[in-house]
Amino acid sequence: METEYLRGWRRQVRFALRPEAKGAPLSRRSVYFDVLLAVLLTVVALVVAARYPGDGPVRVSRVEYGVPMPPSPPSPPRPPVPGADVGQPASPPWVLVVLSALPLAVRRRFPLSVFAVVLGAALGIGDNASWITVLTCVIGTYSAVMYSRYRAGAMTGLVVAAVLAGVVFRSTDPVLPGWSSPGVVLLVAGVLAGVVRFGQRRLAASRDRFAALERAHEEATRRAVEEERARIAAELHDVVTHNVSVMVIQAGAARKVMDVAPERSKEALLAVEAGGRAAMAELRHVMGLLAAPDTGRPDSPADGLEPQPGLGQLDALIDRVRAAGTPVGVAVSLPAEPLPPGVDLTAYRVVQEALTNTLKHAPGAEAVVTVGWSDDLLEIEVRDTGGVRDGVPADGNGRGLIGLRERLGVYGGELTAGPTLAGGFRIRAELPWRTA
């Protein structure tokens, strides 16, 4: 237990000593502001030091307010400063006055270094420090805590600076009460900077979380749109491809026999008309599938898959294929219990896609449709004899089989498709049909 405690303590120490990541680069406005502030404070500090040498507001005697000063301990005699007027207060070193304000020009880029230089210059000025010197120290303290990447260094420097300020200026008596001494003022400035920095971090973290949520929402919306587009494409493919394929074959047959066998041409055109009507009916079913279930329309479905065809319409589908010139054998065995609407539709689409492929890719072939079932699985198989291609490339990109696999995957089904040893093609699907 103690070992874990020590490890946790060490991790905390390492985290505190570790520098933070670099922030965003400084804007030009921030740089100009800091330079202007530093130059202005430097000029004011030089003017104050020249006009009021040795009499900064930090040092104010209580005698001015009618309060007797306690006796001060005797101080050793100081040797006269060469070049100084006897009886005149000594001016602070001009270099220290400049160093107490001018480094603030880079306070955001090098906050700890600027803080150390400004504080060192102020301590060097000592009792001759003016109110402008205290102000530059406050700004340096605020900058160190606010902008430094080294949190531990900034807080340590703040405490050391407050102690040193209290020691150096212990012989002074400020105009305000004792809690406004330079050491306390530095601590207050540091704490204020810490509070502001913490608030900015919380605000930045909230903005980042909000941006991440927005990105996640946009990504989810994009995926939903893509899935909806894929679903619409699959439905349109299932509905249009089969009926249009039948219509194209019948129209071609009508064109070929129009002069020699007008009656057969008429029958083919009637089949084209029937195929068009079937396509329109199924497109209306698709529109019902895509419509919102709460539109208030009387034909609005409660379940998007319910208005679609099922194995009950298998005879009409096979009749259309036979009318297109493809012999189809059928062997269907269904359970006594009604199939779930989604399963029924999926089984119908498997047969429809397989027969459409036979019409498009194997003209003249014979097809056999077999539908059976077991305790849990519905088995669909469509096999053709291959036929003879006429040399015209069939259009299509395999979207039908891809859509079938996706549709079967929704219900836990599987699809296998491939050529047979006899030269034909077989599509087999297994689909769980029990919902519980």
From TrEMBL:
Domain of life: Bacteria
Transmembrane segments: 31-52, 112-138, 150-169, 181-199
Name the UniProt record assigns to this protein: histidine kinase
GO molecular function, one term: ATP binding
Catalysed reactions listed for this entry: ATP + protein L-histidine = ADP + protein N-phospho-L-histidine
Coiled-coil stretches noted in the UniProt entry, renumbered to this chain: 203-230
Keywords: ATP-binding, Coiled coil, Kinase, Membrane, Nucleotide-binding, Phosphoprotein, Transferase, Transmembrane, Transmembrane helix, Two-component regulatory system
EC number annotated for this UniProt entry: 2.7.13.3
Coiled coil among keywords: yes
GO cellular component: membrane
Keyword flag Mitochondrion: no
Enzyme class: transferase
Domain Signal transduction histidine kinase subgroup 3 dimerisation and phosphoacceptor: 228-291
Histidine kinase/HSP90-like ATPase domain ranges (all copies): 345-433
